[in-house]
Amino acid sequence: MRTRPIPFMPEMVRKVKSGKKTITRRIVRPQPKYALGWGKQTTYEYRNGFYALDIYTGNSNILAKCPYGQIGDKLWVRETWKPKVVHSCGEYECDCDALIVEYLADKSSKRFQGGDIPESWRIPKTALKNNFVPSLFMPRWASRLLLEITDIRIERIQSITEEDALKEGCVQDSCDHARQTCEDIGCYGPTAKGDFKYIWDTTYGKASWNDNIWVWVIEFKVVEGDN
Asked: What is the distance between the alpha carbons of residues 214 and 224, in angstroms, rounded to a whole number?
């Protein structure tokens, strides 16, 4: 069993903490390339291997290459954060080596003692200016959420079902334009899948959805966290 980091945006962290989000989709990099003349089915090349992904999306050989891990592996969540030095020296003790970490997702805080923090670690310059630090720079010790992978598969982004969109934490929200169709005005529609498409487009751009790219589909459960 291995433990790897995985980044989440603040809105997604809130959904994970509330239990509304139990699946995440991540872009396969590099994208599998269509290969002509390999086997009876449509075949794709990915990292020197060939896979009939359109037919056998659960192919264990390609799933073994998933950079996020395997079923049973753990994922520690990286999120936008802000470390602050604690100065509350008392008559008999001083906690100057302690830190308070604030999390942007819900503005909650968690206290870490000096023993929790590697001696080599230094507060990012942006935090010294009282700004939040991007998730990319969150160290393992500051993470508050630990996930366990319960299932992995590979599929095209447009293959997402309404049920899976709900597990992504998306919502079914009624449209408020009675006189025009969604297609007429570019509305994403009243379904959870429509909500997912909107989030995906605003995060990764419309081109990746239109190209129907391949994604890792990772199902998980929270095993550690302050839900």
From this structure: 30
